[in-house]
Amino acid sequence: MSDQPVAPVVVSPVSPVASSVLSVVSPVAPVAPVAAHEPPYYAVVFTSVRTEGDNGYGETADRMGELVKEIPGFLGEDAARTPGGLGITVAYFRDLAAIDEWRNDMGHRAAKKYGREHWYERYSIHIAKVEHSHAFERADD
């Protein structure tokens, strides 16, 4: 159980990547969760509380969002931020090797270092193996 206060969630259609950054933008495209994939695969859950101000965060978030797509085994990501400031990004990877490749990417490492120094009050990262996955989509009537 979390000690975080409950608050409504604002969903971002452009999620910028689990272990580095989270950016909330006004929806300009339909919002949809990452599709279900054939298990097993892995979910990296990055939960954060940001500092005040942008300080280059948005630009870096966009760059990291593009960079992670180059990692073989990256499956997609979902992100949301509460009005109270809690951000959650879940990035999905086919295997632990893909997560390691992303964790060790030099651009990502630089963004993480800068994030600890400037963007985050606190964060946590959880890695979980997904053993079941399914999806639902309402059919057009």
From TrEMBL:
Q: Which residues form a coiled coil?
A: none
Q: Which InterPro entries does the UniProt record give? A: ABM_dom, Dimeric_a/b-barrel, Jasmonate_Hydroxylase-like
Superkingdom in the source lineage? Bacteria
Q: Does the keyword Oxidoreductase apply?
A: yes
User: MF terms per GO, please?
Assistant: monooxygenase activity
Q: Using the record's annotation, list all stretches that form the ABM domain.
A: 40-113
Q: Which UniProt keywords apply?
A: Monooxygenase, Oxidoreductase
UniProt EC number = 1.14.-.-
Q: Does the keyword Disulfide bond apply?
A: no
* Listed name of the protein: Antibiotic biosynthesis monooxygenase
Native species: Streptomyces sp. R21
